[in-house]
Amino acid sequence: MAGGFDDENGKFRVLVNEEEQYSLWLDGMEVPRGWTDTGVAGDKKTCLDYVGKVWTDMRPKSLRIWMEEHAKKTAAEAQSNEAATAGSSPGA
After folding, report:
1. pTM of the predicted model as reported, rounded to 2 decimal places
2. CB-based contact 8:45 (threshold 8 Å)
């Protein structure tokens, strides 16, 4: 017997947390702390289709930000090293 989260025809809501991770939640249940209702509701397929469209990067938001900052820092350090190498001539 299907029921709860296993019910393909049940009514669900799509939730999102501060890390921009998504979850399906049974409609009518209290939204857990740390999660926000996106306003998207419907059967399981409708909700999963929405999540599939909007959640294209599974990495948590904090990791994405860290990786972007790390890449910028690494690129800046590489440019600085190239400039220092280009500025020093063998005969100087």
Report:
1. 0.71
2. yes
